[in-house]
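This is your field. Please look over both lines of this record.
***
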Amino acid sequence: MSAWVYILECSDGSLYVGSTRGELEQRVTAHNAGAFGGYTATRRPVLLRFAQEFSSIQDAIARERQVKGWSRAKKLALIEGDFNALPRLAQRGGPA
């Protein structure tokens, strides 16, 4: 079974990073239904902006934790596929 890390854009423009071991589409549907009662429940609807597949949930969770620590600018670069910007955005004191 595959696992996913994903980034949702919430109705207020904020970004939510999560992971799942199930079907990604079902997970996004559950977020939009308010099934999780957490951060996204009051910021619906949400839009899937990025997803990365992993062979194990442990790897997906590790990536989720990594991306959650990133700045908004770095998350947006990942969403946009601007991989060249990621090292620059990781530097301390770089653009937020």
